[in-house]
Design goal:
- It is built from 19 helices and no strands.
- Helix 6 (81-95) runs antiparallel to helix 10 (163-184), helix 10 (163-184) runs antiparallel to helix 11 and helix 10 (163-184) crosses helix 12 (229-247).
- The longest helix is centred in the first third of the chain and has 24 residues, at 18-41.
- The protein is mainly α and 429 residues long.
Length: 429
């Protein structure tokens, strides 16, 4: 009788070893993770277009101030928080490359004396943040515009702040975020996002009584014949570049203002590394601004660090980083506190208006700050206003308690002129 012998496959062949299983896992993860990151990275852009369906050039004209603000806010707080913030800081810094701007700052000592420079820098940041982080028709937005207009009014009336310099400064707040994002971020901005930035800053400029007559389509001061926010943005940038070519020239006042501002930007950098930081800031300036600020061209290695450092960051964000979730939104101002003030959540130099919480005083970076001998929130009594800020009191100490009537008039006017509606729609009718 024929006996069938059984044939068994070795278990080692059917069942891969643990080492092989882990190898398959890591290979699979290496392939799938970048794909998942790439897919999710663009999800917010798709969601934004579903929420704000400005998908054609014709639709741009109907973009409301509220929609523009929310689109820009998501760019600033979720999509590109680091570079959006740095670009606004650099916008302020770049404005000092105009001699008439720096001359006023030197004359008032607001940015050339260490005792006032940090506070002036923080005050500007706070007011700008209040304007861009709250809805156009919010009362605190109107208060911030009223306060800013009052601070500027004294100098505009005397001719110390020129209309062209006001126009140039606001052009930088509209152009620098686009320039930095398009050059260094993991994706470039879409046209509807540029339209949102143009629409928003046109509305802010109107509230600040900035004349647009120097722009090609600007007529009648605040009026114009722009089709939409993108059209406005393009003409604003065109004028801004021409103004730089004519006015951004070397001047001792520019250098003096730049020195103090760079000291603020490098406030938390250890002293041995500050020369490196100065070279990196210089590399980011570009030739025209660097020449105006009277700095030498940094060694070539720093240009390479900036170029390739951002290139690596762009790749890591695009393919190896998941998008920032909404609960990690970079929102730097608080709601109204029980004592009737607001708090600023961040600081890069002196901790003005920052609430001295346990985390703010004991987190790892706070230890480094302490070791460097720099102040923490709550240090030195009330010097850094640890109780927070009231918008009508922001600004130079000499202006504290002043300008209330002026600001109230501005706020009352904005209740009817800046309501969050369409900015350009009437031009297309």
């Amino acid at each position: 009788m024929y006996n069938q012998t059984s044939f068994e496959i070795p278990v080692s062949i059917l069942s891969p070893s643990k080492q092989e299983s882990w190898t398959y896992f890591w290979v699979l993860l290496a392939v799938l993770y970048p794909l998942v990151c790439a897919l999710l990275r663009n999800d917010r852009l798709r969601t934004t277009l579903e929420t704000f369906p400005y998908t054609t050039r014709r639709s741009f004209a109907s973009m409301t101030d509220n929609d523009a603000m929310q689109i820009q806010q998501d760019l600033a707080e979720l999509e590109f928080p680091f570079l959006f913030e740095k670009s606004l800081q650099f916008a302020l810094f770049r404005s000092y490359g105009i001699p008439t701007v720096s001359k006023l700052l030197v004359a008032t000592s607001q940015f050339t004396e260490p005792s006032t420079a940090c506070k002036r820098y923080t005050d500007t940041e706070v007011l700008v943040t209040e304007i861009i982080a709250n809805e156009p028709a919010a009362e605190r937005t109107r208060e911030a515009l009223g306060r800013m207009n009052y601070i500027h009014s004294q100098y505009r009336k005397s001719g110390k702040i020129l209309d062209d310099d006001m126009l140039y400064t606001i052009s930088l707040f509209a152009s620098e975020p686009v320039r930095w994002i398009d050059r260094y971020e993991w994706r470039k901005l879409e046209d509807f996002e540029k339209c949102a930035i143009g629409t928003f800053w046109k509305s802010v400029g109107d509230a600040m009584e900035i004349s647009w007559e120097k722009l090609r389509s600007g007529t009648g001061g605040t009026q114009g014949t722009w089709k939409d926010g993108l059209h406005f943005w393009e003409e604003l940038i065109e004028w801004s570049l021409q103004y730089e070519q004519e006015k951004m020239v070397p001047d001792p006042n520019i250098h003096k203002t730049a020195e103090e501002t760079i000291a603020i930007l490098l406030w938390g950098v250890p002293n041995p590394l500050k020369p490196v930081g100065r070279h990196l800031v210089s590399a980011l300036m570009g030739d025209r601004l660097r020449t105006a600020m009277m700095y030498p061209n940094p060694p070539a290695i720093y240009h390479y660090i900036v170029t390739y450092g951002f290139a690596v960051r762009k790749y890591l964000l695009r393919y190896l980083s998941l998008p920032r979730p909404s609960f990690l939104r970079h929102h730097h101002i608080t709601e109204l506190s029980e004592n009737g003030t607001y708090y600023y959540k961040r600081y890069e130099a002196a901790p003005y208006y920052v609430k001295p919480t346990l985390w703010k005083r004991w987190k790892p970076t706070a230890w480094l700050t302490w070791l460097m001998g720099l102040p923490l929130p709550g240090d030195e009594g009330d010097k850094y206003s640890p109780e927070g800020y009231r918008i009508p009191e922001i600004g130079p100490r000499s202006m504290k308690g002043k300008g209330g009537d002026y600001a109230s008039t501005v706020v009352e006017g904005l209740r009817t002129t800046r309501t969050g509606g369409c900015v350009f729609a009437a031009k297309t009718q």
